[in-house]
Specification:
Layout: H1 12-30, H2 39-52, H3 59-92, H4 97-108
Length: 109
């Protein structure tokens, strides 16, 4: 049996709202430098909370959280795959990241 809160609700509406906030926050953080490391954690939390509360009264919030979290996870996966592909290609061609940075610093001077 579900535990009831003070006002007779089960708390799933709060989970749905939290899922939406996590999903939208993860999409916003994806564009911010250094903070984007939090994106997978927020997106996974939003996805789990959204799936837990999809049958609540705030079904729209839960679905929004699920969709935005899934988009954030997909974008993060694509970014990681493209960066790893870039670095593996440069290493295979004999161009190393440290050498590229040194050359750029020399050209800047």
């Amino acid at each position: 049996m579900k535990e009831m809160g003070e006002n007779g609700t089960t708390g799933a509406g709060g989970k749905a709202t939290a899922a939406m906030i996590c999903g939208i926050g993860s999409m916003l953080f994806f564009c911010a430098p250094f903070v984007n490391l939090l994106v997978p954690f927020l997106a996974i939390a939003g996805l789990v909370l959204g799936l837990m509360s999809v049958k609540s009264a705030k079904k729209g919030f839960a679905i929004t959280g699920i969709i935005t979290s899934a988009i954030s996870l997909t974008l993060t996966l694509l970014a990681v795959l493209s960066l790893s592909s870039f670095f593996s290609e440069t290493n295979e061609q004999g161009v190393f990241w440290g050498e590229m940075l040194e050359e750029a610093e020399q050209q800047a001077e």
